[in-house]
Amino acid sequence: MLQGTLDLLVLETLKWGAQHGYGISQQIFARSGEVLQVETGSLYPALHRMERRGWISSEWRLTEQNQRAKFYQLTKEGKKQLARDRSKWEAMVEAMAGVLEGRV
């Protein structure tokens, strides 16, 4: 996975509502056509970093299976960060397409 894309993927996933870590990784996997698999060793440090930056908040809740889990949700600052990251990503995709397609 390209460096810096994990935060974007997590923030985008949380745009649709609060989710626990396993749910976030499963959403990314499913929405990527089962291509992108986020490992626990990458996901949780990213979640903690984003929480420290104020992009997400968390609270303990019960899952549908009645298990206690930490649920993460997007904050107002997180929504702003998501918009910035999406803009950067879209510019990167356009630039990559230009190189790959040989545009001048």
Describe this protein's structure.
With 104 residues, this protein is an alpha+beta fold. The protein has a single domain (5-100), classed as Winged helix-like DNA-binding domain superfamily/Winged helix DNA-binding domain (Arc Repressor Mutant, subunit A), CATH 1.10.10.10. The chain contains four helices and three strands. Strands 1-3-2 form a three-stranded antiparallel β-sheet.
Layout of secondary structure:
Layout: H1 5-14, E1 19-20, H2 21-31, H3 40-52, E2 56-62, E3 68-74, H4 76-100
Antiparallel strand pairs: 1-3, 2-3
Helix pairs in contact: 1-2, 1-4
What is the succession of H and E elements?
A: HEHHEEH
Radius of gyration: 15 Å
Main structural class: alpha+beta
Strand order of the largest sheet: 1-3-2
In short:
By secondary structure, the chain is α+β, with helices and mostly antiparallel strands. The protein has helices at 5-14, 21-31, 40-52, 76-100; strands at 19-20, 56-62, 68-74.
Output the keywords.
single chain, 104 residues, alpha+beta, Arc Repressor Mutant, subunit A, 3 strands, globular
